[in-house]
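Case study 2.
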Amino acid sequence: MGKNALLVSRSLDGGVTWSDPVTIIKDTSPRILNDKEAITADPGNSNFVYLVWDRVESPVGTLINPEKVIGLGFKSPATFSRTTNGGVSWEVPSIIYDPGANNQTIGNQIVVLPNGTLVDFFNELLNFRNDEGGSHLDFNLSLKRSSDRGVTWLPHGPPIRAAKMQSRAVIDPQLNGVRDPDTGARVRTGDILPQVAVDRNPRSPGFGNLYAVWQDARFSSFAHDSIAFSMSRDGGFTWSTPIQINRTPTNIRSGDQQAFTPTVRIVSGRPDCTGVSLKTDYFLVHCHLSASVSCTSSANWASEARITPASFDMRKAPVARGFFVGDYEALAVIGNEFKPFFVQSGIVTGDPSDVFFTSVGP
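Prediction:
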């Protein structure tokens, strides 16, 4: 894996200029990779910013792929650092949760509840028999909570396990997840990376709710991946039954119904999700949330709104264990507008991929 480090820069003028980077952690051993970092500014106190990632430690003499799902004696704990002075300095990294040898966390993300509690979400990969009675390839949307801005994390021991993550690649690696429906070529996606959001709007009927989305194939009897959704009304302790929220037509072949790499955010108290569909390219779908309408029913999610003006050619994407335009995308909110940030391939002649940004109104 080679030398690697995590660096953080800050801007005090809205991104026009940036400070010199601060090194959070640096490793020179080829056995260690600091992977899938995510940073969260505390909306309740601008002095606090939280950084979380998985720190992959491979066994001596073995160089592994950090996303490999078969255990080889490696470790990958959820690792944390924070600043309490607005990014001037950062604390020595500490471990939030270590699932033990041959297990892994990946896709860590921290959100801040309205009461200031931190919630770290991650995919907990339990590759062998574990304390929940599972066996090989047990993938969980899991979380830890902190009520003291990251000093301590609860529960002690195993995390809260909100839901099983059951994409095709997770259930059976031989299925190889998302595929080109015409050629069978692999498409590399965010099949093991959940995305989460919290509603911090006190005027919203969903104030304080947590929302999570991820790829899942359970809704088609594992014929193809769709977008799963679950929510919590009690700070992450309990979760709704996962539902499918992408609205891809069902009267087309299974390969064209594949949807993947979702992201979720909240605007005006309404959870919205973006994703990629092999039928409609990038799309946005939202829930009709109100005091009397819940997002826990698929019927309460609107039809997909297309984000891309025209289809892009996935087959022109770079190949990295499959056609690859990224295993996560971004979705920001400014006022009442969503700001999707995503990658397309084959749009610019001779360029395999480019990053795009657009606005989507309420």
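The radius of gyration is 20 Å.
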